[in-house]
């Protein structure tokens, strides 16, 4: 399994936001999309697109106008890697056959593995849910020290 570039960029963006406005930054502080783009070296349009996606997922919130900017919607310790990936990629699943209505596999009628995929998917999601944004954001600071 490999994450899309957008999912990877979403994690990078959320880590930068957490360092500035999460439990690692000043409470209630905000950062602009332009500043996030500069810090992460991502193009501004990409960051703006991610802000929209992450806002719809309830992970960040934005405020327009003077004193506005982006901040985490909840503490960094309450946001997981699974939350961020699912915001961009949708539900975490290694195969499409577990999705309702997906009947496009030639092996569907005889597949003995299909009943086991939900267990695998739940294990993968569970592992990603154990990784908190606060831990990811802190790793860069600790490595620099």
TrEMBL record:
Signal peptide: none annotated. Gene3D superfamilies: Winged helix-like DNA-binding domain superfamily/Winged helix DNA-binding domain. Pfam families: Rrf2. This is SUF system Fe-S cluster assembly regulator. It comes from Alteraurantiacibacter lauratis.
